[in-house]
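Input record, target 12 of the design panel.
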């Protein structure tokens, strides 16, 4: 009988290898957070797409901050799903690094429940953080209402969410460490991302060029499917628990 994709993925993960996990919004869908693209994605409204560009902060700050505040408010109501929990448990079976494009806190929440915090790098920042657009002063605060257009206590500049917008650079440290993990990885798991936004989308290819086996977990074909060796065509909330179970078997 031929091996299933889950069995083949478990085989390459079972020897406690170095693994880079590239995460996108599909991992949080089953927690009630919509993706960006696709039929149910936030970007189906073209006006929403403009709210993730830095230029909108000058042209329509109020609308942009109201939208981000709605997303920040939602963080109080969402919990990690079986995909987050299983991924965190999987990271205890080898030398794992997680590079996430997600700006929620669900992997950290799952880690806290597991009592184990893997290396998680937020390539696109965090909605939990607030940053001064002028002086860069950054702090974690979910109580502040960005819709009220608060200003920085240090310099009086406008406060904004601690996320990366189109037109901005990614956090240097997170990108550097993720690139290094890609170069050193034996395996790269790509879960819940369309693979369309660079530089995050380049990490799996860097890993592959340095010899890694690539595993994609996604119910749909993506821009990265062609370079992946093992395709698990299922939802993260189903595939990751099944993969964890299979890795633990034996
Ligand atoms: P996309 O919306 O581009 O892609 C979401 C992916 O998740 C798609 O490939 C879906 O097939 C997949 N998906 C949907 N449900 C899933 C499930 N239950 N399990 C697994 N996969 C599922 O989202 P991202 O690739 O994360 O950046 O988007 C990348 C970046 O684009 C975001 O970080 C954001 C956005 O612009 C910024 O805002 C800077």
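The sequence produced for target 12 reads:
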């Amino acid at each position: 009988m031929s091996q299933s994709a889950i069995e083949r993925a478990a085989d390459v993960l079972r020897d406690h290898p170095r693994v880079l996990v590239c995460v996108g919004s599909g991992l949080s869908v089953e927690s009630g957070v919509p993706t960006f693209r696709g039929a149910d994605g936030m970007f189906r409204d073209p006006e929403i797409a403009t709210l993730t560009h830095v230029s909108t902060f000058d042209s329509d700050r109020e609308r942009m901050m109201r939208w981000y505040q709605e997303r920040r408010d939602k963080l109080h109501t969402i919990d990690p799903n079986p995909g987050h929990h299983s991924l965190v448990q999987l990271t205890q079976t080898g030398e794992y690094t997680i590079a996430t494009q997600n700006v929620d806190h669900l992997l950290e929440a799952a880690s806290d429940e597991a009592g184990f915090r893997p290396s998680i790098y937020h390539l696109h920042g965090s909605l939990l953080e607030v940053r001064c657009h002028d002086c860069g002063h950054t702090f974690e605060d979910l109580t502040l209402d960005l819709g009220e257009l608060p200003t920085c206590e240090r310099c009086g500049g406008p406060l904004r969410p601690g996320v990366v917008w189109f037109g901005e650079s990614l956090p240097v440290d997170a990108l550097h460490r993720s690139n290094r993990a890609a170069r050193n990885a034996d395996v790269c798991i790509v879960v819940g991302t369309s693979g369309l936004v660079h530089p995050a989308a380049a990490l799996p290819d860097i890993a592959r060029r340095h010899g890694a086996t690539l595993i994609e977990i996604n119910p749909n074909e993506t821009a990265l499917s062609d370079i992946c060796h093992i395709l698990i065509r299922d939802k993260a909330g189903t595939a990751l628990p099944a993969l964890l179970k299979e890795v633990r078997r034996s």
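The CA atoms of residues 214 and 228 lie 5 Å apart.
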